[in-house]
Amino acid sequence: MIDPQLLAYDFDEETQAFGAPKPAIVRRASRLSRLATALCSLGALSVLLQLGAGVALGTWIGIATSYGLLITGAAILFWDRLSRGPAGIKHNGTMFRGLQNRGTIAWILGVALTAFYVILYFYDDLQTGLNMPALLLRPTQMLDPLAHFLSGKNADRWFLYGFLYTISVLVFGFRMLLKYRHNKYQRIRTL
């Protein structure tokens, strides 16, 4: 049986000398963060120009200006955000970010990744059965120089998938090393 006095217990932090919570401090992005964002934006613009207009499509310059800028920008952004301050896990405000709390960006990203996997795995069926255009033709052509260098043949959809997976693992592995730089186990595991 629960004591009725316990159920009637009323405790208000503000009236008990704790005061109102302090408002969150909004910090401006550092110059390095703005530079990293600009590099990522230029990389995304390069990807769009290659996919849409075919500018520098299938060249080393195209790879460098698209994926090179995206990777460099992301690494600089992670470095700037995670290397300042003490090492350790920082979960402050995690569930209030739109990307991590079912926000609009999270839904768009989820739908885009699902569509990419459906197109990737059912590519031949979609082209023959539904007469869909070759949606992965230009993205794979972007990587032809790298595929020729590594295997001596043109890139295909699985080379594209492997490339995107590899750069994701490398960039987020770098982020993991920065975030858990204080923990030897996590560093060894990540490497």
Number of E-type strands:
0
Shape label = elongated
Give average pLDDT, whole number. 85
Oligomerization category of the chains in this entry: single chain
Structural class: mainly alpha
| End-to-end CA span | 54 Å
Roughly what fraction of the amino acids lie in strands?
A: under 5%
Q: Biggest sheet: strands, sense, closure?
A: none
Which range best describes the helical content: under 10%, 10-25%, 25-40%, 40-55%, 55-70% or over 70%?
Answer: 55-70%
Low-confidence stretches: none
Helix-strand sequence: HHHHHHHHH
Number of helices: 9
Structural Rg: 24 Å
Keywords for this structure?
mainly alpha, 9 helices, 191 residues, elongated, 0% strand
Short description:
With 191 residues, the protein is mostly helical.
What does this structure look like?
With 191 residues, the protein is mostly helical. The chain is built from nine helices and no strands. It has helices at 4-7, 31-53, 60-83, 104-121, 123-129, 137-142, 144-151, 157-179, 184-190. Helix 3 packs parallel to helix 8. The longest helix is centred in the middle third of the chain and has 24 residues, at 60-83. The protein is elongated. The chain starts with a helix and ends with a helix. The model has no long low-confidence stretch (mean pLDDT 85).
Draw up the topology in text.
Layout: H1 4-7, H2 31-53, H3 60-83, H4 104-121, H5 123-129, H6 137-142, H7 144-151, H8 157-179, H9 184-190
Helix pairs in contact: 2-3, 3-8
